[in-house]
């Protein structure tokens, strides 16, 4: 398999390392490269998957034996080009069965209790909720152990021996001069079948129910952050652990603030006089108010910053900044005095402006005055 790194190299252990050392190395690397600690880091995401894959093989004695002998190709069905892929099952299963046949002494292999399935759901939060952190109630549908049969799936609690495998949970298949063992499909490797299914769960041992949970959303979360709730997934088989619940955060857009990493961007209108003379004005923040210093001579679309008024960091670093885009507004309604002062200013600046507009009554007065002049003439 070109492109795949050696599993021992991935975990940083020698080929003679014990399972205990392999597991210890895996846990250390899994914590280091976990997506929750490396948000948006594609390289860490790739290494996390690589570490998990290496651990899955090297922590399993059977898979490790195949890997040590045949490398990646053995696990993928190649076995150095020997062509065992036509057996109808994965080559890894075939090798496991062969190894068991040679070294296991013909011992029975029954399927143990299966862990509960993991659940993933998307949780929407507002930008303000993401900034301050919040506890939210969520309702999730998940499979729970049937109360009536306690997960057995039978009405009476009794199961009958599987006729196909004789209660062994596995069957033998012949492939030429090889004899391969695999789990019995009739009983899924359990060795028994149900003759009187429980009416509540229809023999499944589990029923779907809605579970209400309180989820703690930490301050500073962003879209794509994943929260793990251990043991809040679906119920497993009797005696097995529950699955986990993974919550993927999705932060909605805010009408007044735009997010840029840990920084926030907003627009604040200022007057011509504030821009020209400078001012200290109160502006809204995501969670309150603060004062903004406008320097003398500020031009429109100038970006000003308020330190520490952005989003908090999940890693406990300092908060981001609030970036303020100052927009100089032109007044649309003027009082006579205001207009007079602006005209005076235009004169000082020696700038041409439109002539002063006459009011409706000034126009009427002028009209009637002209009529009177005509009568006199």
Automatic annotation (TrEMBL):
<keyword id="KW-0863">Zinc-finger</keyword>
<dbReference type="Pfam" id="PF00684">
    <property type="entry name" value="DnaJ_CXXCXGXG"/>
</dbReference>
<feature type="binding site">
    <location>
        <position position="146"/>
    </location>
    <ligand>
        <name>Zn(2+) 1</name>
    </ligand>
</feature>
<comment type="function">
    <text>Participates actively in the response to hyperosmotic and heat shock by preventing the aggregation of stress-denatured proteins and by disaggregating proteins, also in an autonomous, DnaK-independent fashion. Unfolded proteins bind initially to DnaJ; upon interaction with the DnaJ-bound protein, DnaK hydrolyzes its bound ATP, resulting in the formation of a stable complex. GrpE releases ADP from DnaK; ATP binding to DnaK triggers the release of the substrate protein, thus completing the reaction cycle.</text>
</comment>
<feature type="binding site">
    <location>
        <position position="201"/>
    </location>
    <ligand>
        <name>Zn(2+) 1</name>
    </ligand>
</feature>
<dbReference type="GO" id="GO:0009408">
    <property type="term" value="P:response to heat"/>
</dbReference>
<dbReference type="GO" id="GO:0042026">
    <property type="term" value="P:protein refolding"/>
</dbReference>
<dbReference type="GO" id="GO:0005737">
    <property type="term" value="C:cytoplasm"/>
</dbReference>
<keyword id="KW-0862">Zinc</keyword>
<dbReference type="Pfam" id="PF00226">
    <property type="entry name" value="DnaJ"/>
</dbReference>
<feature type="binding site">
    <location>
        <position position="149"/>
    </location>
    <ligand>
        <name>Zn(2+) 1</name>
    </ligand>
</feature>
<keyword id="KW-0479">Metal-binding</keyword>
<comment type="similarity">
    <text>Belongs to the DnaJ family.</text>
</comment>
<dbReference type="InterPro" id="IPR036869">
    <property type="entry name" value="J_dom_sf"/>
</dbReference>
<dbReference type="InterPro" id="IPR036410">
    <property type="entry name" value="HSP_DnaJ_Cys-rich_dom_sf"/>
</dbReference>
<keyword id="KW-0560">Oxidoreductase</keyword>
<feature type="repeat" description="CXXCXGXG motif">
    <location>
        <begin position="146"/>
        <end position="153"/>
    </location>
</feature>
<feature type="repeat" description="CXXCXGXG motif">
    <location>
        <begin position="162"/>
        <end position="169"/>
    </location>
</feature>
<feature type="binding site">
    <location>
        <position position="165"/>
    </location>
    <ligand>
        <name>Zn(2+) 2</name>
    </ligand>
</feature>
<dbReference type="Pfam" id="PF01556">
    <property type="entry name" value="DnaJ_C"/>
</dbReference>
<dbReference type="GO" id="GO:0006260">
    <property type="term" value="P:DNA replication"/>
</dbReference>
<keyword id="KW-0143">Chaperone</keyword>
<dbReference type="GO" id="GO:0016491">
    <property type="term" value="F:oxidoreductase activity"/>
</dbReference>
<feature type="binding site">
    <location>
        <position position="162"/>
    </location>
    <ligand>
        <name>Zn(2+) 2</name>
    </ligand>
</feature>
<feature type="binding site">
    <location>
        <position position="184"/>
    </location>
    <ligand>
        <name>Zn(2+) 2</name>
    </ligand>
</feature>
<dbReference type="InterPro" id="IPR012724">
    <property type="entry name" value="DnaJ"/>
</dbReference>
<keyword id="KW-0963">Cytoplasm</keyword>
<feature type="domain" description="J">
    <location>
        <begin position="6"/>
        <end position="71"/>
    </location>
</feature>
<dbReference type="InterPro" id="IPR001623">
    <property type="entry name" value="DnaJ_domain"/>
</dbReference>
<dbReference type="GO" id="GO:0031072">
    <property type="term" value="F:heat shock protein binding"/>
</dbReference>
<keyword id="KW-0677">Repeat</keyword>
<dbReference type="InterPro" id="IPR018253">
    <property type="entry name" value="DnaJ_domain_CS"/>
</dbReference>
<feature type="domain" description="CR-type">
    <location>
        <begin position="133"/>
        <end position="210"/>
    </location>
</feature>
<dbReference type="GO" id="GO:0008270">
    <property type="term" value="F:zinc ion binding"/>
</dbReference>
<dbReference type="InterPro" id="IPR008971">
    <property type="entry name" value="HSP40/DnaJ_pept-bd"/>
</dbReference>
<protein>
    <recommendedName>
        <fullName>Chaperone protein DnaJ</fullName>
    </recommendedName>
</protein>
<feature type="zinc finger region" description="CR-type">
    <location>
        <begin position="133"/>
        <end position="210"/>
    </location>
</feature>
<dbReference type="InterPro" id="IPR001305">
    <property type="entry name" value="HSP_DnaJ_Cys-rich_dom"/>
</dbReference>
<feature type="binding site">
    <location>
        <position position="198"/>
    </location>
    <ligand>
        <name>Zn(2+) 1</name>
    </ligand>
</feature>
<feature type="repeat" description="CXXCXGXG motif">
    <location>
        <begin position="184"/>
        <end position="191"/>
    </location>
</feature>
<keyword id="KW-0235">DNA replication</keyword>
<feature type="repeat" description="CXXCXGXG motif">
    <location>
        <begin position="198"/>
        <end position="205"/>
    </location>
</feature>
């Amino acid at each position: 398999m070109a492109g795949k790194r050696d599993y021992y190299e991935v975990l940083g252990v020698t080929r003679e390392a014990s399972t205990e050392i392999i597991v210890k190395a895996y846990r250390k690397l899994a914590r280091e490269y976990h997506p929750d600690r490396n948000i948006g880091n594609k390289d860490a995401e790739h290494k996390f998957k690589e570490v998990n894959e290496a651990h899955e093989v090297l922590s399993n004695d059977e898979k490790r034996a195949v890997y040590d002998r045949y490398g990646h190709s053995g696990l993928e069905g190649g076995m150095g080009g020997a062509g065992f892929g036509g057996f109808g099952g994965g080559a890894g299963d075939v090798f496991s069965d062969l190894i068991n046949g040679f070294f296991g002494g013909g011992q029975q292999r029954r399927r143990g209790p299966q862990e509960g399935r993991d659940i993933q759901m998307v949780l929407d939060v507002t930008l303000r909720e993401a900034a301050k952190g919040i506890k939210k109630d969520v309702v999730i549908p998940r499979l729970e152990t049937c109360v009536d049969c306690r997960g057995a799936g039978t009405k009476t609690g009794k199961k009958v021996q599987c006729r196909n495998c004789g209660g062994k949970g596995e069957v033998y298949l012949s492939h030429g001069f090889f004899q391969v063992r695999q789990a019995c499909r009739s009983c899924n490797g359990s060795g028994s079948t149900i003759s009187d299914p429980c009416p509540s769960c229809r023999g499944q041992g589990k029923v779907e129910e809605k579970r209400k949970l309180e989820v703690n959303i930490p301050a500073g979360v962003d879209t794509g952050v994943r929260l793990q709730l251990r043991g809040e997934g679906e119920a497993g088989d009797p005696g097995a652990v529950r699955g986990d619940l993974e919550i993927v955060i999705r932060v909605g857009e805010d009408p007044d603030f735009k997010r840029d990493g840990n920084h926030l961007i907003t627009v604040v209108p200022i007057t011509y006089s504030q821009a020209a003379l400078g001012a200290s004005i109160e502006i809204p923040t995501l969670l309150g108010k603060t004062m903004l210093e406008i320097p003398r001579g500020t031009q429109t679309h100038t970006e000003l910053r308020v330190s520490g008024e952005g989003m908090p960091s999940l890693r406990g670093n300092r908060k981001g900044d609030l970036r303020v885009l100052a927009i100089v507004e032109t007044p649309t309604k003027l009082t006579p005095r205001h207009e007079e002062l602006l005209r005076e200013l235009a004169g000082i600046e020696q700038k041409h402006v439109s002539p002063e507009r006459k009011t409706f009554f000034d126009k009427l007065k002028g009209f009637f005055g002209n009529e009177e002049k005509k009568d006199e003439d």
